[in-house]
Amino acid sequence: MMKRVVVTGLGLISALGIGLEESWKKLIAGETGIDLIKSYDTTDQPVRIAGEVKGFEPTDYGIEKKEVKKLARNTQFALVATKMALEDANFKIDETNADDVGVIVSAGVGGIEIMEEQYGNMLTKGYRRISPFTIPAMIENMAAGNIAIYYGAKGPNRSIVTACASGTHSIGDGFDLIRHGRAKAMIVGGTEASVTQFCINSFANMKALSTRNETPKTASRPFSKDRDGFVMGEGAGILILEELESALARGAKIYAEMVGFGDTSDANHITAPIETGEGATKAMRAALKDANIPLEDVTYINAHGTSTPTNDIVETRAIKALFGDKAKSLYVSSTKGATGHALGGAGGIEGVIIAKTIAEGIIPPTINLHETEEECDLNYVPNKAIKADVKVAMSNSLGFGGHNSVIVMKKFEK
């Protein structure tokens, strides 16, 4: 018999704020963290806006100053968000449980700012000036590796690279490990720090980003008729998943129960989803089947909802193909208008959001949504959060390469 799995701790760093409560308060108030880029000079560049994390100092959270240069920014985010999640869960890792605690925390592009900086050093100063910490700082698995090192988790440890689906895949795989008895607790989620000159301009040259530089706060507008691309974000979302029996034994608070995971591949195109949305439909169907939850029980979907012309209509088609007449009675919102799109970190951030949504009974809005096109005709919770009894919530993540990943949580009942 498979184990039941619950969410007992949440850690969140986003463009909205550092910490779960600050980010959540602003999210449900309809605020956004998107603004002009401050971290580098954007003069004469096509995209000058992003959802940057503001005021983040890793030394404020126990990372020694001498260690900071050895850690990519996305790893710093992950370490601090993990600290927050462990404290939120009141979960201590020690010699009595370390072997039963694992980590799956992932990124899409990893320490890309390290690569940019050190490649620049090589070009201007020669290869001898490349830092010996370059590779262990920039590779994608180092967030998971460093979390284990810093906090002593000796169970299963890995990272998953599926572009913008990485964080959601990480949550799903951690869930699988616990319910099959391979771990009693997992630190899971996603992290990303992709607001860099190289990364932003690479996406800009693909015509994937919004160019509404004069109005940054309304640039990301998922499902809006006049959407023109996504806005880059950054941050980390970390969840503590626990075997129910262990969580109850230690008197843990429980945000939600994790009940389903589904993933598929479009096998179609390196960047574009299938126009019908069938890959996403199949992933949602698989997740609900895994959860043994009927369509009519679903209350809320946190959509991938990137604000690109293609994604939002394809995802809407996918939802309608699965839910049929039920689709228009669902609450569907994208929180990327508030946070920006944090690539591999997005699934972690949005996993935190659906757990908090279930616990609080408040559905965050899709901001900047004033007019939709004819085919985008679902209830996207426009501009204002609503109170609702959220019994079942889903989170969708769709990544370049055709990766589709979906998780399902429900309100916990003994």
Structural commentary:
There is one protein chain. This protein has 13 helices and 15 strands. 58% of the residues are buried. It folds into 2 domains: 5-250, Peroxisomal Thiolase, Chain A, domain 1 (3-Layer(aba) Sandwich), CATH 3.40.47.10; 260-411, Peroxisomal Thiolase, Chain A, domain 1 (3-Layer(aba) Sandwich). It has helices at residues 20-28, 65-68, 73-89, 112-125, 134-138, 142-151, 166-179, 197-205, 244-249, 278-291, 309-323, 336-339, 346-360, and strands at residues 5-14, 17-18, 35-36, 49-50, 101-106, 157-158, 185-193, 234-243, 256-265, 300-302, 331-333, 362-363, 386-387, 392-399, 403-410. Helix 3 (73-89) packs across helix 6 (142-151). The mean pLDDT is 98. Strands 1, 2, 5, 6, 7, 8, 9, 10, 11, 14 and 15 form an 11-stranded mixed beta sheet that branches. The protein has a two-stranded antiparallel sheet with strand order 3-4. It is globular. Belongs to the thiolase-like superfamily. Beta-ketoacyl-ACP synthases family.
